[in-house]
Write a structure and sequence with these properties.
With about 220 residues, the protein is mostly helical. It has one domain. About 75% of the residues lie in helices and about 0% in strands. It has helices at about 5-20, 30-45, 50-65, 75-90, 95-115, 125-130, 145-175, 180-190, 200, 205-220. Helix 7 packs antiparallel against helix 8.
């Protein structure tokens, strides 16, 4: 997975890049564009990130539902069934699921003691040993795999409110300018953020968010 510390982070980066490229066809050379799409698709698939697959699938479904107006009761039922099956499939990764629960429990304890302003930015790994016995689980010395819990843990309710305001401004600007890729990008980030932390902890992913956020706010 190249310079990324984990394949999930790579898949998130590639998935978000794919959304941007699909709805911004600024490359006139069809051969180059086709090669780029093919390369991105291969890397995305080989990353084997179920959370990124689900998020990308949701974005595609939402695009067809709202842009092409094919929404109906049968489509909604099919979507719910598929999401339920995918959720069931995710929970069958017993070891990974248990590890996420351990980190979520530690996060909950930290939040209960510092819910207003949080425990401090970038302090989750430092302080998690105080709340959990991780002597035999060095692998668990990592942030909680959920960006919402991570923000609430480190910067508290005030951080969640600030993040919500930023997202509101972002979405408002995207909707006003009819920026499809901007809306789908934030949906992709928020969905993958339910299962991992890399959008707020891995440099490459944070730089990509900053770039796309800037491009979106620049659009008229």
């Amino acid at each position: 997975y190249s310079t990324f510390p984990h394949p999930n982070a790579l898949a998130g980066f590639i998935g978000l890049t794919a959304i941007f490229l699909i709805f911004n066809r600024f490359i006139s050379n069809k051969v180059l564009m086709t090669f780029g799409y093919l390369l991105i698709s291969v890397v995305f698939i080989l990353a084997f990130s179920m959370s990124a697959y689900i998020a990308f699938f949701i974005c595609i479904i939402l695009y067809f539902v709202f842009k092409l107006k094919i929404f109906n009761q049968k489509a909604l039922t099919l979507f719910i069934v598929l999401m339920s099956l995918l959720s069931f499939y995710l929970t069958n990764f017993s070891k990974s699921f248990r590890e996420r629960l351990v980190l979520a429990n530690i996060s909950g304890e930290m939040i209960s003691e510092n819910w207003v302003v949080g425990a401090g930015l970038n302090t989750f790994i430092i302080k998690e040993t105080v709340y959990g016995n991780l002597e035999n689980s060095v692998w668990l010395l990592q942030p909680v795999h959920n960006i919402y819990l991570l923000v609430l843990t480190e910067v508290g309710l005030s951080g969640i409110i600030l993040l919500s305001l930023v997202l509101y401004r972002f979405l408002k600007n995207c909707i006003k300018s009819k920026n499809i890729w901007g809306v789908l990008s934030i949906i992709f980030i928020l969905t993958t953020g339910l299962f991992d932390h890399y959008w707020f902890t891995i440099q490459q992913n944070m730089l990509l968010i900053s770039l796309l956020l800037g491009l979106s706010l620049r659009e008229k």
